[in-house]
């Protein structure tokens, strides 16, 4: 049925209409997930109509909607908490870092939030308001200070990093341990099992 050009075109139009109706409400995130999944299926099965370009364009619009929702939620969060309070949650003295990052769950949360921040970078750091720019710089400094502790936790118990990677890309399956890279002590590499061919 997906190979029928008329069906694919009509389904894509229906999905596009649904996207337009949910665009203004981030509460419809489950609907967005569903239409993206169907859009990906249309793309994988498409043989002409709708064209790959049309489906890709639709998926890009879906991504724009999700990004817009992320920005809206971020504004709501920062307005309710305030940048200074948010910044203060990260800006602890070095002697307290171990308490803030002590297990795989803490590690997973930190890595996942870092991934989200990296996936949705601001357009230009210099164009941001001073308080937001200062917060982003502060977060980078905190991540740098936590780097050695993070590497130690990942080496000791990789489940936090593996969990964060899994949440960042549901098709990724991460298991096993990580070891320090012999060429670059600031990086880890997947532990290789010597018993495998």
Automatic annotation (TrEMBL):
Domain of life according to the entry: Eukaryota
Region ranges (Disordered): 157-197
Bias-annotated ranges (Polar residues): 165-180
Protein name: Uncharacterized protein
Organism: Penicillium alfredii
């Amino acid at each position: 049925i997906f190979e029928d050009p008329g069906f694919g075109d009509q389904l894509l139009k229906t999905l596009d209409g649904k996207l337009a109706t949910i665009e203004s409400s981030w509460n419809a995130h489950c609907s967005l997930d569903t239409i993206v999944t169907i859009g990906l299926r249309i793309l994988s099965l498409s043989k002409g109509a709708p064209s790959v370009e049309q489906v890709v364009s639709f998926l890009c619009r879906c991504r724009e909607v999700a990004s817009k929702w992320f920005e809206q939620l971020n504004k709501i969060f920062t307005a309710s908490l305030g940048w200074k309070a948010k910044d203060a949650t990260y800006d602890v003295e070095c002697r307290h870092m171990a308490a803030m990052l002590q297990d795989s769950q803490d590690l997973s949360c930190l890595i996942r939030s870092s991934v989200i921040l990296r996936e949705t970078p601001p357009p230009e750091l210099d164009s941001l308001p001073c308080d937001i720019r200062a917060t982003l710089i502060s977060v980078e400094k905190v991540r740098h200070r936590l780097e050695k502790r993070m590497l130690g936790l990942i080496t000791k118990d990789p489940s936090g990093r593996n969990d964060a990677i899994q949440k960042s890309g549901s098709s990724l399956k991460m298991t096993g341990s990580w070891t320090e890279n012999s060429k670059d002590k600031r990086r880890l590499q997947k532990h290789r099992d010597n018993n495998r061919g």
